[in-house]
Design goal:
This protein has about 260 residues and is α/β, with parallel strands linked by helices. The protein has helices at about 35-50, 75-80, 85-105, 120-130, 155-165, 165-175, 180-185, 200-210, 215-230, 235-250, 250-265; strands at about 15-20, 20-25, 60-65, 110-115, 120, 130-135, 140, 180, 190-195. A 6-stranded mixed sheet has the order 1-2-3-4-6-9, with helices on both faces. A 3-stranded mixed sheet has the order 5-7-8. Helix 5 packs across helix 6 (about 165-175).
Length: about 260
């Protein structure tokens, strides 16, 4: 991976790479990591770098300070509403932020969100638009859109509807004031709930386990799973054939099969 400028402590989002695991830390703790233009641009840049790196297998997204992410920066957005500049201001913000979300869904790596404290609005969307979410017991998910008179953004409907279905999604966005990590776990939105003091270690453990999957297995599985609900059966079967044959051409596969066959003897 080509070297680039290291993250500075006051960057709005930080990148750390340890072997096959990359970690993005949302770094606006004083603003509960709310999404403004600076953080959206930084996230887009970092995601492009991770997507292009063949060495990274897992991306972890976490928040610094007391919250995971409080959603869109309402100070910026409120000021734009007052000044009648919502279209250019929010349009520019979402152009970069949505490019980041698209990269998260598309990159051939597993993206794991590690959530503590509050995940509200687009922060809730981010928690669940990733491939997997691990949450602290004290994590609180708040839709926060309807109460300010708007509909969801930031990939909120992408991650949630695909997981819980149409009616539960309508319930979440329009009838829930907020819900706990345990409820999110029961609805299939969270893979694992752990005590707050264990979140860092449990995230690391899960990321390391996920990173043991060879790249071809991760890339093929992620792509097939996301297209499954939208693809006719024949086309999906062809895609499965193509992906498995591609994976069978790798050394990872040859080594694993040899090991498996010799164990059976």
């Amino acid at each position: 991976m080509s070297a680039s400028a290291p993250s500075l402590p006051d960057d709005p989002a930080l990148l750390r790479i340890e072997g096959p695991i990359a970690t993005i830390t949302l770094n606006r703790p004083a603003a509960f990591n709310s999404i403004n233009l600076a953080i959206a641009q930084k996230l887009e840049q970092i995601a492009a770098r991770i997507e292009a790196s063949p060495d990274i297998r897992v991306l972890v997204i976490e928040g610094a300070g007391r919250a995971f992410c409080a959603g869109g920066d309402l100070q910026t957005i409120g000021a734009a509403a007052e000044a009648n500049t919502v279209t250019p201001v929010v349009g520019e913000l979402l152009k970069h932020y949505h490019a980041f979300i698209e990269s998260v869904r598309r990159m051939p790596k597993i993206v794991l969100t590690s959530v503590h404290g509050s995940a509200a609005g687009a922060g809730m969307g981010l928690a669940f638009v990733a491939d997997l979410c691990i949450a602290a017991e004290d994590a609180r998910f708040t839709p926060a859109y309807a109460k300010i008179g708007v509909s969801p953004d930031g990939g909120s409907t992408v991650g949630i509807v695909g997981t819980v279905g149409t009616r539960r999604a309508l319930q979440i966005f329009l009838a829930e004031d907020g819900f706990t990590a345990q409820q999110a776990y029961e609805w299939g939105l969270v893979a694992k709930v752990v005590p707050a003091t264990e979140l860092k270690a449990a995230t690391r453990q899960l990321a390391e386990r996920l990173a043991q999957n060879p790249p071809a297995a991760i890339a093929g599985t992620k792509s097939l799973v996301y297209q499954a609900t939208l693809t006719p059966t024949r086309q999906q079967l062809d895609a499965e054939e193509h992906k498995i044959i591609t994976a069978m051409h790798t050394d990872d596969f040859r080594v694993a099969v040899k090991k498996f066959i010799s164990k059976g003897k």
